[in-house]
Amino acid sequence: MKRLLPLFLIALMGCYNFQKxxxxxxxxxxKAQVLEIMxxxxxxxxxxxxxxxxxxxxxSFGNCDYRQLWFRxxxxxxxxxxxxxxxxxxxxxxxxxxxxxxxxxxIEFRNR
Length: 112
Known about the structure:
This protein is α+β, with helices and mostly antiparallel strands. It is built from 2 helices and 4 strands. It is globular and about 35 Å long.
């Protein structure tokens, strides 16, 4: 049991750092800005002018938190997320993108 505690704490810190990075993202970020904040994506998929980068972090033993970052014309326009119970690491449970359900896109902001 004493050996598992350090592993559990490392997993929690990894999830905390992952969440901390995600909060720094903003709509309109370039791919270069996202790479600087998040690092290299664990997965990327393309469909026409859309591109999705996927990242993951460990929530707890066997549970992973995933973020899908959606780009159009090289700019971040939205994110989606999901969690999965995955044995053997998070990589095997990365989902194929559902291109029929992109996140809502903010076209512009107007002050009233």
